[in-house]
Design goal:
Number of domains: 2
Protein name: tRNA-dihydrouridine(20/20a) synthase
Distance between the termini: 32 Å
CATH superfamily of the largest domain: Aldolase class I
Radius of gyration: 20 Å
CATH class of the largest domain: Alpha Beta
Bound molecules: flavin mononucleotide
Largest sheet: 8 strands, parallel, barrel
GO molecular function, one term: tRNA binding
Pfam family, one: Dus
Number of strands: 9
Active site: 93
CATH architecture of the largest domain: Alpha-Beta Barrel
Strand order of the largest sheet: 1-2-4-5-6-7-8-9
Helix content: 40-55%
Site (Interacts with tRNA): 90, 178, 290, 293
Number of helices: 16
Amino acid sequence: MKDHRLSVAPMVDRTDRHFRFLVRQISRKVRLYSEMTVDQAVLRGNRERLLAFHPEEHPVALQLAGSDPKSLAEAARIGEAFGYDEVNLNLGCPSERAQRGGYGACLLGDPGRVAEILRAMAEAVRVPVSVKLRLGLEGRETYPELAGMVERFAEAGVRVFIVHARSALLGLSTRANREIPPLRHGWVYRLKADFPQLTFALNGGVRTLEEALAHLGRVDGVMLGRAVYEDPFVLAEADRRVFGLDRRPTRLQVARRLRAYLEEEALRGTPPWAVLRHALNLFRGQPKGRLWRRLLAEGRSLTALDRALRALEDEEVKEGGQEEDPDPKGHPQAALGPARGRV
Ligand SMILES: Cc1cc2nc3c(=O)[nH]c(=O)nc-3n(C[C@H](O)[C@H](O)[C@H](O)COP(=O)(O)O)c2cc1C
């Protein structure tokens, strides 16, 4: 099965192609997931705008939502044709809109239908079809029910399960649903022990690479969401410590690459802010992190980025900072700086 050791969670209004490109500059290997995209949007909307991505983004998965086997199969096929490496079905979104549309977490109440959907999707594409699910509905989740669903979905052709390790409370806001239902990481460990042939990635509440590495002893993968958006450099050591590559980019290297990207994107008509808004946290926890943020947010342009780069390059000289990692075999966690461990 493809490598799911470390991935960045699908997040609406966050993990669009520009943020994914930024993350890709930090880690060459981490697996990226698109924002949730409803099947009808793929079938009827502007596909180029919804689905196109930068060639550097691989490995990248398209997350779909919907409730109809036929249209999801068709949307999966279109996603595969666009070059996505995996198609993922959302079984975790608890929003009212999702409930009205009959997709997301509420589908966990109808595993038979989900199996039908997954079979149709798996038959439509050659790339892996995965699911991202919660433990169950309404805080009435039981492990045997969850295991029963996994078995059923595996029979339908799914090999990769991303488990957001809490239940869905359908009466609550999406935000409350990421905080109130308790995390049960132990259930994901147990799924892996019970279904060793399947791939399980654990998601929910993982804040640091150190924590992710600890889970990796028990499951095949770990997916991080908010921690990466709030501080993308939480992945600074990912290539080295998770994937065994001799690589650790600096924030300034990433920022300079982003500048070149901004210029390329300008030619495609992308407004600079569409890219820059995702870079606000790039220097989080660093001496001039706030200045960086302010300069970008006020200017919202390539000129603003240049100004911010100059301000941080000055700092680099003053502090004797170096572009290349001074001691790649040293103490990598120390290099993560003060942001590490922040909750
Ligand atoms: C702003 C935001 C948008 C999200 N959008 C999606 C989404 O489109 N699809 C999905 O499966 N989960 C979505 N989630 C949930 C995350 O993928 C993830 O499961 C959740 O945040 C828990 O992981 P974390 O604690 O590492 O953030 C979203 C979360 C946030 C914060």
